[in-house]
Design a protein that fits this description.
It is built from 7 helices and 9 strands. It is α/β, with parallel strands linked by helices and about 240 residues long. The protein has one domain: Rossmann fold (3-Layer(aba) Sandwich), CATH 3.40.50. The radius of gyration is 18 Å and the shape is globular.
Length: about 240
Amino acid sequence: MKLDLLAFGVHPDDIELSCAGTLLVEKNNGKKVGVIDLTLGELGTRGNAATRKYEAEKSAKILGLDVRENLKMADGFFENNETNKKKIITVLRKYQPEIILCNAIDDRHPDHGRSAQLVNDAAFLSGLIKIKTKDDGKSQQAWRPKYVFNYIQDLYLHPNFVIDISVFFETKLQAIEAFESQFYRPKANDKEPQTYISSPEFLESVINRSKMFGRMIGVKYAEGFISKKMIGMKSFDRLIQKNI
């Protein structure tokens, strides 16, 4: 299956927190969208790998994803090496996405920035015909996405552009809430250790960031992205006009 948009997250729930609204926008536009989780999030303080897998599948249904796969790299210890690059190259050649979304280029969690560099490197190498890969025993053809955009996570980074997700914001929240083991859901029997992301303040910060990005363009909610590549336009017709 060829995808239009493929989002990479190092941990299950990275996508939900950072760019799920954009996936919903593009799905509504008739595009085929997918998610690749690099790890099972097995080092997370709350929950476990099996729980995270179940939650990721639940979220995938909420988002209406065409594809969600997990590459099962080592949470916390994966490296930007040949083996892992080839895992990503194989996925890119399998789904041939036009656009990639991936982790923040710099962030509080060291996995995020390392994942961003790994995916960026693999996206370039995927276009080299002398790198050989196979899927289901069949040789793959080279494929390089047109764009790689980094979404914004915990640290504040000024976006190069933002996407209006106002219509789909409640669905984005439902996808986040699918990860019940990780985020704030008041439960009397919750005996798991409390963490940085399980507090109500963390979820409020995610909502407030979407509001802040939305305010930049005169809409209620938006998600922000960073691009190393210059973005071109054929016309001004699709620009959002902010009243100033």
